[in-house]
Amino acid sequence: MTRRGMVFLSVLTAAAAGVAWLLEGRFSWVAPPSMHAPPAQSNRPSATNPIIYYRDPDNRPFYSSTPRKAANGKEFVAVRASEDVSFEDKPAPTPSKTGEARRVRYYRNPMGLPDTSPVPKKDPMGMDYVPVFEDEGEDNSTVTVSPGKLQKTGVRSEPVERRTMSVPVRAAGRIEFDPRRVSVVSLRFEAFIESVGKFAEGDYVHKGEPLMRVYGPDLSSAAAEYVAVLNSGRGGRERLEGAKRRLANLGLDENAIAAIARSRRVPRVILWPAPQDGHIFERSALNGMRAAPGDALFRIVDHSLVWVLADFPERDVAMIAPGQKAEVRARAYPDRAFKGEVALIYPHLNAETRTARVRIELPNPEGLLRGDMYADVEIAAAGNEKVLTAPESAIIDTGKRQVAIVDKGEGRFEPREVKIGRRGDGLVEIEAGLGEKDRVVTTANFLIDAESNLKAALRALDQGEGGK
């Protein structure tokens, strides 16, 4: 064999050996720059670990658990355990109570799967398994979270305090007119209505505005007597006051009597004024009609303040008191809240529905609220005593159990079952399970609860395997 043939054979043999060593993992294989592999680090261990996944050759976010090719025909790049980048916190070994480094019992799956390992490893997505230390069995109820994870998850805690809770009580109600703001226009004598102003039901009138022109024999007779006493000048003060009183008893107001005194003449008809501001709710007066004493000719309602009558359950009556603030949302305006105040709790319950009627006075300056509208009422009822409370966001309520995560400091958390009572103002009453000195987690508490449940399940699994 020639010298050139012998050299070629040696090179071929070395290449074959190198390929074998590469497959057996005897030395690291460095990806060329075209594959965009992470830059080599001086302290990186040799890539002797098994392949954990394959990544896209062009550094796109595509991964595979088995060898494959990209759309452009390039092979996916193998990533070994020692080459993967981990974003998990890797704190230094924590000393135990005796001063020695803590010993790892086993490693659990980071995604909560029922899979453990006696040695460090990664899951198919490249995440490190979480170590479980031997001394963690000393406190089965405590979960320890590293400072880095606390910052990433945004864990926050607030103290448990005694406060006076404002508990909302709700009921349906109906809007009514305030009867103290309703006036009926009627005459105290038999009369004839010569004409009525151009008013109809629903129109708004002002106090003193003439509603109709009225003629009555008794009214004319009393006016003639009053004018005679004024003109004679000899009737004396008592006679003058008597004649004036007779006109007032027939329903004339001070302005009408003063107008007769100025003119010294008996008017043929009297302009009858509106007694108050408001809307004409009812009109029965007609031109030329005869009106008997007491007939309701007009009914005028002032809507500037209305009532809301709501029926609250018997169990809520003790929490309601006059003067409490109420929020009313009419069904016609569900997005608008009207502020009112509890004026009265009626003294009798409805025997059939076991509810108590509550009257709420509600300003209505814009006139949006109308009679017989349905409304939803909410009263902020405050208790008389301070109770132990926690933020409502601190309670994990599954329906069957309520849990709060107690912050014990230094990254240690303890899930506790609690018994809760009333809710209101973003707070919840704590009846059992917590004390005043406790701090509870208000954000990301469900993550810690899940960690605690997983820890308990793995411990039970570990004990079950040990007992076999």
From TrEMBL:
Q: What residue stretch is flagged as signal peptide?
A: none
Show the segment(s) annotated as Disordered.
Answer: 138-161
- InterPro entries membership: 3HB_CusB, Beta-barrel_RND_2, BSH_CusB, CzcB_C, MFP_Cation_Efflux, RND_pump_MFP
Q: Provide the CusB-like beta-barrel domain boundaries.
A: 306-382
Where in the numbering of this chain does the CzcB-like C-terminal circularly permuted SH3-like domain appear? 390-448
- Keyword Ribosomal protein: yes or no? no
A GO molecular function annotation here is: transition metal ion binding
Question: Its Gene Ontology biological processes?
Answer: copper ion export; plasma membrane copper ion transport
The CusB-like barrel-sandwich hybrid domain covers 182-300
Similarity comment text for this entry? Belongs to the membrane fusion protein (MFP) (TC 8.A.1) family.
NCBIfam families, sorted: RND_mfp (TIGR01730)
Q: What is this protein called?
A: Cation efflux system protein
Specify the species.
Methylocystis echinoides
The organism that produces this protein has a lineage beginning with: Bacteria, Pseudomonadati, Pseudomonadota, Alphaproteobacteria, Hyphomicrobiales
